[in-house]
Amino acid sequence: MSGGTRKPRAGTSRQTGAPTIADVAKLAGVSLMTVSRVINAEANVRDATREAVQAAIVKLNYAPNRAARRLAGAVQLRIGLFYSNPSEAYLSAFLLGSLDQASRSDIQLVVQHADPHHNASEVARRFIESGVDGIILPPPLCDSREVLDLLAAAGVPTIAVATGSQPDHVASVSIDDRGAAREMTEHLLRLGHERIGFIIGDPNLAASGERLEGYREALRARDIVPDDALIAQGYFTYRSGLDAAEQLLEIGDPPSAIFASNDDMAAATVAVAHRRGMDVPGDLTVVGFDDSALATTIWPELTTIHQPIAEMSRAAMQLLITMLQSRRNGGTAPPQHQVLDYTLVRRQSDAAPRRRPRPSVRKVD
Length: 365
Known about the structure:
41% helix, elongated, 434 Repressor (Amino-terminal Domain), Rossmann fold
């Protein structure tokens, strides 16, 4: 082989700078106009074609040129993210997904916080007046009837994320919370656990009730009558998880496993077990829900339900963009409800229950 400069093969081009819209079109096998329609979130593009273009954009790490889009007459959309989630781990994953999709779609993302228990509707009203084109509601605001009614009355397109109720008049992105909780409980039953404690999430969130029902369904399927003494109320916060775990471990016949409705409360349960001198999972199996960053930053790492939080926020953003573009083009369509897949992720916090008597431990104040 000679040491001369190798010529590019036929049909290939040398990448000399940032990828262009032509590169995206070539990789996706579509026209430049089709790529432009996808970037501008126009409704008259087939789903398969849209997915192919979006895959090419991701693979090439293509960023639309804003100046060129303005010259072409494209109007940048302003989408609001209205949140009040108490879990920093959940919120971080949600924000990362939203920001990533907003950047890829050249959307201006406006973020607004509200206390769900104090004047959330007033903050929502001011948010609407700021001129956002549409709003994304992660939990728990996704189930706030007051906020949803206000947005509906104002005619603001809205996406409710991770809601367990899926109202007919509001588009939504979620997972099967009941099915996921049922699968996790079945997993614990297969390990040999029969006394399984459950920590409920925020009672104002529909998904909390769905997860509780999934837990109960799995027990009933094994002819185990759910014991109210094994169910404790939490609020999706670490603090509430500490209180709930203490309550469950104080009863006369404590559970051999505790299933918490999110990773924050599961991490708190692990902390309580360690403070009591218990080994996890030797003395107590602990599992969670969400698969947030917290699940792999504590010891032992949590067995949990992977809820694709970032993917759900991206899907919500894309769904809202499509709705807004269709609306600008004069189209109307019933709200869509997308259900994404979940996964049971097994790590180090679960094991079969010990068959010997548990050691007597004294509560440390």
